């Protein structure tokens, strides 16, 4: 990200922040792509980056069209835009796929103020589910005999497979990660050293991903 | 055997996982009819169980068949909804007439609602900071270059670029355009990238 | 499995496969479930094959209406063949949904032999699967694979391709150089346009 600093030479402080914002976003994007379930949103970072993009676009437009710097910055902007779009799209895909279960969990999370979805995403999820319900009812359910008309949300719900395995890297040393033994009852406890990489089941380390102690790779 | 028709329906739609087939209203109607018949038979037999206890088991068999038919029909509609979603991402909010024809009226209604919901979500992105939203259907691939060479497959007409230049897209004409501004047209098949 | 399959077409097709069952009760008017029966009614004690979804549902009633037996491809004779050398078996012919159906019927096998055979078969065939996904002769090597194995192989082949594409690209030009080149090309193009 050296070239970010070229855009705005006057304000040294902001560049460092922009750099951190981008790194945070990249990690969030990577985690979101690799985790089976939806992760807490990073709306502040997204909005901050969008602001930065706007700022950079204005600066680029000041440069003459054939200036080589304009091309380089444009390229960089489109790379950042790609990350943001892909990140948000990945979240939307999960929201659509696990709509019912995400909405159920989210309602509980909202009570404690620990929501994972942004306001926009939550609205989108509700509307999406409502549309699906209306469609299924209109086309078949309403035409079915008496006791078959109801839409059984709990049956329809799709849940992410938390038992899937993921590659991860420890950002700091963590001791006492409990790996459940699904078949027997011999749980195993392991320590993750800072910087070490592992292949583990997602479920036991889900919270570590969410609080940033590990990242998926 | 029970629920054979609905299996046919599912197998048919599985055969072409990458395209959408015309909506089969007639088949759906027949399956719903089969369900009504099963239901009526069950009502009658359930009333007769006081005299003949063994009818209960029969009622249970039919009930399972009803549940099965319901599940399969929902799965059929759901798999089509998934495909219609893809249509929205790939064709945009306006479907070409030949694709539109493959959807039932209810499905088209669903498509429009999905599209509206998606659009209002995309518009809301970054609204708090005065940003006018991002089109998530763009930027689908990691950018490799700012410009790309494309050939036009149809007589599309004028394309105005953000810097004010206007390009005339005629069939078989070749252009060198900013990737950001023509990727949607490439996805829609109006332009083809030359590599 | 924690994920629900209610809307999965694959799961619906798997549960459409037939399994042998023995009925415990009379089923009036259900004679058609047994193709060899002549009566309108299905008698208690009848052995016949019905789709898995129906068998599962009737088995889960209290009391269960029937008992489920293993389809022949999961029985001793086939298990022996599979345990001896799973790679020689054409799983597609044997049962397109070999693993998926196996997972369902394994619970009707108290000794757990089916489970072991499934795992064993997969372990043995894994190398074969790898070869199939890297092979150019896709039709020949895909042929003996079961439905899900085919999907795996196809997915693996796509990934393999993507990686080699990516490697080649990373190889050909540096990013800035590429951009400069593009810039020159763009100038040329602009000159052509006007």
**Most extensive interface, chain pair and sizes:** A-B, 42 and 46 residues
Number of separate helices of chain C: 9
Oligomer: heterotrimer
Can you tell me the CATH topology of the largest domain in chain A? Answer: Methane Monooxygenase Hydroxylase, Chain G, domain 1
Q: How helical, in percent, are the residues of chain A?
A: 55-70%
CATH class of the largest domain in chain C, named: Mainly Alpha
Order of helices and strands of chain A: HHHHHHHEEEEHE
Side by side, the strands of the main sheet of chain C go 2-1-3
Shape of chain C: elongated
Uncertain regions spanning at least 5 consecutive residues of chain C: 170-187
- Give the CATH topology of the largest domain in chain C: Methane Monooxygenase Hydroxylase, Chain G, domain 1
**What fraction of residues of chain A sit in β-strands?**
5-15%
Number of domains of chain C: 2
Gyration radius of chain A, in Å = 22 Å
Main location (chain B): nucleus
Subcellular location (chain B): Nucleus
InterPro entries (chain B): GINS_A, GINS_bundle-like_dom_sf, GINS_Psf1, PSF1_C
Organism (chain B): Diatraea saccharalis (sugarcane borer)
Question: What does it look like?
Answer:
The complex is a heterotrimer of chains A (217), B (195) and C (194). Chain A is mainly alpha-helical. Chain A has 3 domains: 2-97, Methane Monooxygenase Hydroxylase, Chain G, domain 1 (Up-down Bundle); 100-156, Methane Monooxygenase Hydroxylase, Chain G, domain 1; 165-216, Ribosomal Protein L9, domain 1, CATH 3.40.5.60. Chain A is built from 8 helices and 5 strands. Chain A has helices at 2-7, 12-34, 43-62, 68-97, 99-111, 119-139, 153-156, 202-210, and strands spanning 165-170, 174-179, 188-192, 197-201, 214-216. In chain A, the strands form 2 sheets. In chain A, strands 4-1-5 form a 3-stranded antiparallel β-sheet. In chain A, strands 2-3 form a two-stranded antiparallel ribbon. In chain A, helix 2 (12-34) runs parallel beside helix 4 (68-97), helix 3 runs antiparallel to helix 4 (68-97) and helix 5 crosses helix 6 (119-139). Residues 1-14 of chain A have low confidence and may be disordered. Chain B is mostly helical and 195 residues long. Chain B folds into 2 domains: 4-124, Methane Monooxygenase Hydroxylase, Chain G, domain 1 (Up-down Bundle), CATH 1.20.58.1030; 147-193, Ribosomal Protein L9, domain 1 (3-Layer(aba) Sandwich). Chain B is built from 6 helices and 5 strands. The mean pLDDT of chain B is 86. Chain C has 194 residues and is mainly alpha-helical. A 3-stranded antiparallel β-sheet of chain C has the order 2-1-3. The chains are: A mainly alpha (217), B mainly alpha (195), C mainly alpha (194). Chains A and B meet through helix 3, helix 4 and helix 6 of A and helix 2, helix 3 and helix 5 of B.
